[in-house]
Amino acid sequence: MPTMTTSTKTRSRAGVAALATAVLLAGCSAGSGTSSDPTTPDGDGATSSGGTGGDAGGPSDETVRVGLVAEPASLDFTTTDGAAIPQLLLDNVYETLVTVDQESGEIVGALAEEWEVSDDRLTYTFTLKDGVTFSDGSDFTAEDAQFSLERVSTDAWTTSLKAQLDVVESVEAQDDTTLVVTLTEPSNSFLYALTTRVGAMFDTEGTDDLANTPIGTGPYTFVSWDRGSRIVLERNEDYHGDAPYFGTVEMHYFRDANALNNAMLTDAIDVVSTVQAPESLAEFETGDYQIVEGTTNGEVVLSMNQQEGAPLADLALRQAVRHAIDHQSLMDTCWAGRGTLIGSMVPPTDPWYEDRTGDYPFDQDKARALIAEAGAEGETLRLRIPTLPYAVACGTVVESMLEEVGLQVEVDELEFPSAWLETVFTNKDFDMSIVAHVEPRDMGNVFGNPEYYTTYGTDQIRALLDEADTASEEEQVAKMKEAAALISEDAAADFLFLLPNLMVADPDITGLPENAIKESFPLAALARG
């Protein structure tokens, strides 16, 4: 075993909560928004974060009602793709060994108080918090942590995100509070991966019915699910950290943006977690509401099926699609001009971000020439989109812009999540689709695997991503920039825009973040001032 040093050592800070987000699945967020209340690719948009307990004191017996679009298809993110599940459960019901501090962006301790990394970067030794219990009353120990991490590599996990822990060679519980993880090679992404759903800690005796009965160590416990309407969580009275302010959280799910807005306007909810009709913000600007606007890491991607025999397997045709889209006009039309143009799969909050909007400038003549080069004049492309507000709104704009340069577009709206996941994500029965990918630092997950629905994952890009992961931090940034450039230049997809973080809430709700850049919506951050 390598000699242990304290080359990396971080202590957890009480009250540190993670960042937030909510949209898509192993590249998109799976959820099925419906509601009887007048309630992986994406789900609905962005979420929140902050410190546990908010800043208003507490705890209280109050209930907070949060409105969302994109209901989870299940409560089991180990077998069901979609951001709607970790949005609900991660950091709230399930916790991880380490998490991301919202303000600094640094990885800090959560269930691990501290950790050490060996000089060769192959061995991580975590010291776990003592006295932590699961919601079923059993103790959380290193044995549970070992079970949780080892389980990711078994058939129990079926989602593609499990590949993030392929670098793990062994996991050993040395005693109740000491966990040793050994890697096959140095990995820059390993510790960050532990802040995501693959790092969730499970009870060794609590995984029999994850789809319906989640058991975790978090500040809230799962109570009930009225499918198509709401999910209820209650404060975990035995939580090891600061008690959250709200005693009960109701997550209300709505089928469309208008129903979500109406619920806020009629005081049926207290928070709109992500505005699904940005043009409607004027409805709230003159009322007694607070509006939060910032950024997310939710890239709205126009994916292009490049499987052999598909029309978009032709590079020239993919390039034509990119040149045919006026991204500023599209964002102005379908998302009220709110968002950020980025031109790649990297948001500005990532260390390897570069503005790549100039790679394929809007040029209809160039698009027509490339279509002719591909021999694709009049080609019909099937644009199969999920029934999510941004996808539907942007789909009509993409259709119009591509038809202006001589292509035919057949738009199919597929119910989300079930129909879209089966048709597009699983069966790859599409030419183009539109979905927001919100998992943090997900460029490799989305474009590093030819079996993923995006169908890219070339040998060259996979080699670059592997080199970036094992390199020094400085070399990692350079290699990741190179990978992002290659993905863009190859027109592996088109990157329509980056979703904004748009939230509306009662004026006295605190703990709402300006930016939402993580999978979870840390509910313990919310309070009433």
Automatic annotation (TrEMBL):
Residues 106-437 form the Solute-binding protein family domain. GO terms for biological process: peptide transport. GO terms for molecular function: peptide transmembrane transporter activity. Residues 1-32 form the signal peptide. Residues 48-57 have a biased composition (Gly residues). PANTHER family: D,D-DIPEPTIDE-BINDING PERIPLASMIC PROTEIN DDPA-RELATED, PERIPLASMIC BINDING COMPONENT OF ABC TRANSPORTER. This is Peptide/nickel transport system substrate-binding protein. It comes from Ornithinimicrobium humiphilum.
